[in-house]
Amino acid sequence: MSSSSPVPGGAVRPAAVVNADIRALVLSCGGWLYGEARQRYEMLVEEWTVACAAEREDVVAAA
């Protein structure tokens, strides 16, 4: 897995970085997510959702 911790202080990591972590986790587990791997996956998906929303807000604000 790559950097698997959220950025401290409430900063949001880029969605692409979180997505890479999700892909690495799934690949490392052979696609089977149980126990800690499943919990980590769910946390990453939540983080990815927040990152996507933040990136959309940045795009709208720039328009």
Question: What would a concise description of this structure say?
Answer:
The protein has 63 residues and is an all-alpha fold. It has 2 helices and no strands.
Largest sheet: none
Mean pLDDT over the full residue set: 87
| Oligomeric state | single chain
Structural class: mainly alpha
SS field, number of helical segments: 2
Number of strands: 0
Strand portion, in percent?
Answer: under 5%
Task: Indicate the radius of gyration in whole angstroms.
Answer: 13 Å
Backbone shape: elongated
pLDDT below 50 for ≥5 consecutive residues: which ranges? none
- Written as H for each helix and E for each strand, in order along the chain, the element string is HH
Distance between the termini: 35 Å
Helix content class: 55-70%
What does this molecule look like?
It is a single chain. By secondary structure, this protein is mainly alpha-helical. It has two helices and no strands. The mean pLDDT is 87.
